[in-house]
Amino acid sequence: MTTVTLQQGGEVLGRFIRGDSTAFADIVQEHQSMVFSIAYHFLHDRGRAEEVAQDVFLRLYRHLDSIKSRNHLVFWLRKVTCRRSIDEVRKLLMTPPTSLEDVAVLAAEPTDLDPLLSRGLRRMVASLSEDARAVIILRYQEELDLADIAEILDIPVNTVKSRLQRSLEILREKFHRRAGDVQR
Amino acid sequence: MNVTQGRIYINPALILFGATLLGAFSQPTFGQNPKLDIKNVELIAKKASEVVDVNLDGALLKLAAKFMTAEDDREGLEIVKNLKGIYVKNFEFDKPGEYSQADVEAIRGQLQKPSWSRIVSAQSKHEGETTEIYLMTAPDGGAVLGMAIINAEPKELTVVNIVGPIDIDKLSALEGKMGIPHLSKDAKESTKKSEGHHEKQK
Amino acid sequence: MNSFEDKLRNALRREAAPEGFAEKVLARTRGLSQPGAKAWGQFGAFLAMPVLRWAAAAVAVCLLVVAGLVYHQRQERLRREGEMARAQVMQALRIASVKLNVARKKVQEINRETPPSRL
What we know:
The structure holds 3 protein chains of 3 kinds. By secondary structure, chain A is mainly α. Chain A has one domain (about 5-185). In chain A, about 80% of the residues lie in helices and about 0% in strands. By secondary structure, chain B is α+β, with helices and mostly antiparallel strands. Chain B has a domain at about 35-170. Chain B is globular and about 40 Å long. Chain C is mainly alpha-helical. Chain C is built from 4 helices and no strands. The chains are: A mainly alpha, B alpha+beta, C mainly alpha. The interface between B and C is large, with 44 and 31 residues.
């Protein structure tokens, strides 16, 4: 996968603004993993996650003239992906299904030390409410601090904090319960 | 002027009265419309072997004038350029008696109005031919407002009505031009008609 | 570091996008207007598609040809009407002139034949 370095990110944006059609392709290449992953961890469904991710990039294409910088671009992508994923969850009222695609993921990622565990955790995350899910994904996938999460989700920092704490409690509880079951 | 017999007596008082009544008008008014109603003459067409029917109002005359650009058209253009209408009915018959004097009287009656003046009335009893020329002039006796010609022959009837300031001298001067033949001293001359119409029998 | 959070972090690490994802996105952007384009600009992008551009050009040419034909026909009709009107004028003048001169000739003959005292 070709990546564009941080230093080049702003240049790519500038190229697109100036009408360079290949610049948008570079933008997609750089950020597709982030966008797809947020959607996937939200929805726990690769097919739906791909649709959501594509939709996010199409929206970006239409609104790229409003993007002011590379940081703004990343912020915008995270924000829109979360919002779009939340909308998708609410629309589908889904429970995290068992997806065979997860098996393919496991096979493709031998670096996962405990693929079963990871899969289990992902399913647990997907079982959280959509608001809690967003906080967890942005905190642990994107490694964002509470202030950034608050800005993306447009909620107070304290709300982020409380949702994060609550979500971790639920996940730990589920995790340990599941680990106890496994052990048995 | 009546050249056949007698004189035309014109009461000067009548002329004065007419001029006073119509003096303020330079345009044709009631009774001063130089356009004749010659619709009834069209009924004669059914009996005619050859018909020439020309109906050119102001718009068509303007259009025609645009196309009269040849050198030969110059004199004709000079005549028609200010006219408001040209109407001609010409009928040729295979034998005499195909039309009646009553048909002609319907037109002649319109020319009896005071606004019309008969300037020529030529009759040839031997040939049975009558030609009358009428002019309508403005009340002040100035501009010509229209002209009418009735030519009745045993096997031909022609009615010409020209609306507008027609110059008779210029019209007469077209003889020998534009395909108009010179007339010999013998008035019974064959007239060359346009394509599609045969010549009169001598 | 909280081991549970590490596990969570590991479970939620970024996934690679599916194969061909970028190509699919780019394919869907074709036909969309450039960001910030005005409405007619979108139309221009629409027309930028080669087939549609040719179709639009063909339609424009057809319309021009039709307009030209209509104009030519109208001019031709006017010319015919004008020529006909001219021919009618000439014919009318011929007839009027002949009849006028017939009458005049008769008057002249009678004048020659009739002694002045009788007028």
